[in-house]
Design brief:
It is built from 20 helices and 23 strands. It is α/β, with parallel strands linked by helices and 762 residues long. The strands form 5 sheets. Strands 1, 2, 3, 4, 5, 6, 7, 8, 9, 10 and 11 form an 11-stranded mixed sheet that branches. Strands 16-15-14-17-21 form a 5-stranded mixed sheet, with helices on both faces. Helix 14 links the parallel strand 14 and strand 15 (541-546). It is elongated, with a radius of gyration of 32 Å. The chain crosses the membrane at residues 40-59. InterPro entries: STL-like (IPR005049). It comes from Perilla frutescens var. hirtella.
């Protein structure tokens, strides 16, 4: 068959369609490039259709799998840790001034109140406009009503924000309070020397911002006084809960690492620092203080609003270099020397943004010789009986402890503050605390600061790098906080909160230097934080192992079949611990029933028949034979005292002792013995259920084991969790399955029989 080439028209002008001679199928050109060119629009249409369908399937599966913003943030965080973001190149000497062309161009004020608004003006916001000497600046977002208006306030709508010429606008989400960043720049451009960062749901006490805050730091109206300061005597303490100082030991602020929630003792003593450099001032809020969703959802008995009171007569307290405190955007004053620290990150969840900003700014504040001071109640915030979901701050709980330790250890050799700021933002992106977007955002923010006329402060020598003076007896200042009525898991305290908060502190004192090592066979992304919340209140720390490592959740990798080989690493890490308690996540520990146990003895389930058994190797499967042979090899190489102990307990070498080893305890003085036995096993594949009973029988005689687990509630299999099976009277319960937050909530409710502080009324 002859194939003819398609003849193209020679004229440049198109011919009328009805004059064109239709081509037959035989006249088509089979050359692919010509065919593709002819059918380009069809190809593009089909590709777009395929892409759309694929995207819909992805979104459907993602939502079905329970994906949420926090999970995506965690993914971004993990990815950002494996890449090197691009470092912004800035010519600091060629930044042009930005001229305000809005109707407010000529307005100037030294004191500004910056607030984000998403609804019509609240009564609290109306009261703010009446505070003398302060100018209210309301920042709109995509949810703000178009006709928003309030006499006495300057309102920056999205349209006005876009006209200001600030570089940061390109990075800001449309529907978030972090758009306040535009407001900070606007205020600085218009003469700000103090900026009060606040929300629209709090009333300033007595309508006087200066009643407790130090609005003036220099001049005749400044308070010339020394300020109480947390002691720097413990170099390992990097964060404190300021609510304790102001009379609320059982309440913690949003942004406090959850592992520090149980630290509720008051200060043995304070020191003092001269006032004048408290460039960031954090106020306490009565009513609804700034608390996280964990506190909010577990401390409410009903829909009744929170009304928590703090001691308004407690003195303000400063933070020394090396110690941090959560700082929010609800009730905080920034002085001009710290204006650079107002930037709200954009690549993290909204409920983490101001907290991360606070820690980031505190670290940089030390570079200019400044410090944070926490003040007695300055506002009363109203609880609207609504809260954001835990997922909105999940990445905060995961990262904040690691962030604090990172910031305290961070050092920079740069010679100007803005260079240090940019360097720190870059390194934080490398470490996964935020993404490259915030590196670029920081660069835009710093350039905008210079464009509105801000002068960066001079650097000061870092006190952290100088030898700390010994705190003499005369330098120690005492202050004993009040113990005000509070709320615990829906149970209101009557009278005062003593130092122990009931049994909780009694248990904490007993087990506060015991390390809990927990192996999670279940999904750690759904349970790791919950286990830490439950047991972290009692034990020194909770180490979580799993089959897969999860850096974001601080979950370490280990194999359950050989988990004993990992324990010596934990022993070395906590060399001062009293002992180590191992727990599998299919077993529930009723810690309140362990107080009578001797912490100097070994604990194991040797008297629980379904957990500890002796089997004859003869006639059994190859697995038992191989395990028994390896045990014989190890026993043969044991030092005399180990070998004698073991053979006294296991008379017949044809028998193999097996313990499921869901829970056991190794005291400090047996740690070296345990490690020696692990080294004897070396690379032999002795199973965890075989190795642990062998170790215990070699270390000591069973008659010396503590009997605490003898009354453990134990079944080999359980079809499903049953409240009838659980017993609060037993030291431990096995098995129990926790694979989700719902399972964890059910567990907490039944455990509250033994620990009422866990009670969550529904």
């Amino acid at each position: 068959m002859q194939v003819q080439d398609r003849i193209l028209p020679t004229s440049d002008s198109p011919k009328p369609h009805n004059h064109r001679k239709p081509f037959s199928i035989h006249s088509k050109n089979l050359d692919f490039s010509s065919w593709a060119s002819e059918n380009l629009y069809k190809i593009v249409t089909i590709l777009l259709l395929i892409t759309t369908v694929a995207a819909l399937f992805f979104l459907r599966n993602y939502s079905t799998a329970g994906g949420d913003a926090a999970a995506l943030l965690c993914l971004q965080s993990t990815q950002s840790r494996t890449i090197h973001p691009k470092f912004p190149q800035i010519n600091w000497n060629s930044i042009d001034r930005i001229v305000d062309r809005t109707p407010f161009a000529s307005f100037q004020s030294e004191k500004w109140i910056v607030v984000s608004v998403s609804d019509y003006p609240s009564d609290s916001l109306r009261r703010l406009t009446k505070i003398k000497g302060w100018q209210v600046l309301a920042i709109g977002n995509s949810r703000t009503p178009k006709d928003w208006n309030l006499k006495g306030a300057i309102f920056l709508s999205l349209e006005l924000q876009a006209q200001l010429g600030f570089r940061v606008v390109d990075y800001l989400p449309y529907d978030s309070y972090v758009r306040k960043t535009v407001g900070y720049l606007f205020a600085i451009q218009h003469g700000a020397q103090k900026i009060y960062d606040v929300d629209d749901r709090g009333d300033v006490i007595d309508d006087d911002i200066g009643k407790h805050f130090d609005v003036e730091l220099i001049g005749e109206s400044a308070r010339q006084e020394v300020i109480l300061q947390y002691s720097h005597e413990n170099p390992n303490r990097t964060v404190v809960n300021p609510y304790i100082h102001f009379g609320q030991r059982s309440v913690w602020p949003r942004g406090l690492p959850l592992e520090n929630v149980g630290d509720i003792g008051h200060e043995e003593f304070y020191t003092e620092v001269f006032g004048g450099k408290q460039f960031i001032q954090q106020g306490i809020s009565n009513g609804l203080p700034d608390v996280d969703s964990v506190f909010y959802f577990t401390r409410k008995a009903s829909l009744e609003a929170f009304d928590i009171r703090f001691d308004d007569r407690a003195p303000k307290v400063a933070l020394p270099q090396g110690t941090m405190v959560p700082v929010n955007s609800f009730n905080t004053i920034f002085h001009s020397s710290a204006f650079w620290g107002l930037m709200l990150p954009v690549s993290v969840s909204t409920m983490a943004s101001d907290v991360l900003r606070g820690y980031w700014a505190q670290r940089l504040l030390w570079e200019v010789g400044g410090y944070v001071v926490v003040y007695p109640p300055t506002v009363r915030r109203y609880d609207r009986v609504e809260a954001y979901p835990f997922s909105e701050e999940k990445d905060l709980h995961v990262n904040v402890g690691r962030l604090i330790n990172f910031l305290v250890a961070w050092r920079s050799s740069k010679h100007r503050l803005f260079e240090k700021i940019l360097e720190l933002s870059y390194v934080m992106a490398e470490e996964g605390f935020w993404t490259e977007k915030d590196v670029q955002f920081t660069a835009a923010w710093l350039q905008d600061l210079l464009s509105v006329g801000y002068q960066q402060p001079r650097l000061m020598s870092l006190e952290l790098d100088r030898p700390r003076a010994t705190i003499g007896h005369g330098d120690r200042k005492e202050f004993v906080p009040q113990k005000l009525p509070s709320v615990h898991l829906g149970v209101e305290e009557i009278g005062t909160v003593n130092y122990e908060i009931g049994n909780l502190i009694h248990w904490r004192k007993h087990f506060g230097n015991v390390v809990l090592v927990m192996f999670c066979s279940g999904p750690v992304e759904r349970t790791a934080l919950e286990w830490r919340l439950l047991y972290g209140r009692i034990f020194k720390t909770v180490i979580i192992l799993s089959g897969e490592k999860n850096v974001d959740l601080a979950v370490e990798e280990g194999q359950l079949d050989y988990v004993y080989k990992y324990l010596p690493k934990v022993f070395d890490r906590y060399s001062s611990a009293d002992g180590f308690l191992f727990l599998h996540d299919d077993t529930i520990l009723n810690y309140w029933n362990l107080l009578q146990a001797d912490k100097s003895k070994l604990w194991i389930t040797d008297k629980v028949s379904k957990s500890w058994t002796t089997v004859s190797v003869a006639g059994n499967s190859d697995w038992f034979v191989k395990q028994a042979d390896m045990v014989k090899k190890v026993v043969a190489t044991m030092p005399a005292h180990f070998q004698v102990n073991y053979k006294d307990s296991v008379k017949d070498q044809q028998n193999l002792v097996i313990c499921n080893s869901e829970v056991f305890y190794v005291p400090r003085h047996f740690v070296s013995d345990f490690t020696d036995l692990v080294n004897l096993v070396d690379d032999l594949d002795i199973h965890h259920k075989v190795a642990i009973p062998m170790f215990f029988l070699a270390m000591d005689s069973p008659q010396n084991f503590d009997s605490v687990f003898n009354s453990m509630k134990y079944k080999q299999k359980l079809q499903s969790n049953s409240t009838l099976f659980y017993s609060a009277e037993a030291p431990a319960v096995h098995p129990w399955s926790v694979t989700s937050e719902q399972d964890f909530i059910k567990l907490i409710r039944i455990m509250a029989v033994g620990d009422p502080l866990l009670m969550e009324l529904v």
